[in-house]
Amino acid sequence: RSCSFTGFSTVQSRKLAKSLSRSSVRSRMSLKPPKVYNSLQKGALIWDPKPLQVKKIFEALKKGLNEYLEAHQAELDYLSGRHKDTKRNSRLAFYYDLDKQIRSVERYIRKLEFHISKVEELYEAYCIQCRLRDGATNMKQAFSLSPSTKASRESLVELYKNVQECTEDMCFIEGALEVHLGEFHVKMKGLVGFARLCPGDQYEVFVRLGRQKWRLKGKIETDDSQTWDEEEKIFIPNLHEKFEIKVTELRGLATILVGVVTCDSISFFSTKPQAIVVDITELGTIKLRLEVLW
Length: 294
Hints:
RIPR3 protein
C-alpha cells in the first residue's frame, strides 16, 4: 500500500491539499453558527459525523416530504377540477372562494418543493465532504507508511488539516440539515397491561430525545380508565439521538422501575399519525401506547 504512494511528488500532494481546502463547504454555503443547531449546542458538540445515520434520516425525510407533496398535488388537482365546473355554472362567490383555496395550496406546494430541493442540496454537499474526507484519510495513512522525509511530513500536516476541515464541514451540514426535520407531536395514549394494571396504581413516564425531556404522571382509575397530567409534547428531531422511554411505578415514597426502552424516529417521517406500541417490560406484560404526528 505504501509503495503505490511513495513516488507521489510534493507538488502533487500540495495540489491535492489545496483542492481539498478549496472544496470547504463553508466557502460555498452560508451556514449559521453551530449554537443554533440541536446537535451542535454547547455540551452536545458532535465532531464525529455519522454518514450512515445521516443517509437513513435523509431518505426517510425525503420520502415523507414527497408524501406531503403528492397529497397536496392531489388536493390541487381536485380543487382545479371543481374550479372549472364552478366557472361554467357561474356561481361567483363560491368560484372566488375556491380560487383562493387553490392559490393557498399552490403556495404550499412551492414551499414544499423548495424544502425538498434545500434538503437535497445539503445532502449532496455532505456527500462531497464525506468523499473528500475519506480520500484525505487514505492519503494520510499512505504517507504515514512511506519513508519519512521533509516533503512527506509537510504533506501529512496539510492532509491532517484537510481531514479536520472536512469533518468540521460535515458537522455543520448535519446541523443545517436538522433545521429542516420539522417537529414530532407526541401524544400520550396510555399504558396497556391487562392484569398488571390495577385501580389506584400510579405511574411516571419519562421520555427523552437528546436534551429534550417530557415527564408525566398518570393514574389508573376505578373504571380502568387512565388520567395523565399531560397529553402532548412537541419534540424537535435530531440526527444522532433516539427516543429513550423510562416507566416507573410510584408506590408512596418509593419508585419501582418498570422498564427502559429506546425507539428510533426514522419511521415517524410520515404524513399519517404513527401509532407506536412499545414493550416496556421484557415479556411485554406492560406496553406504552403513543401517537406521533410529524
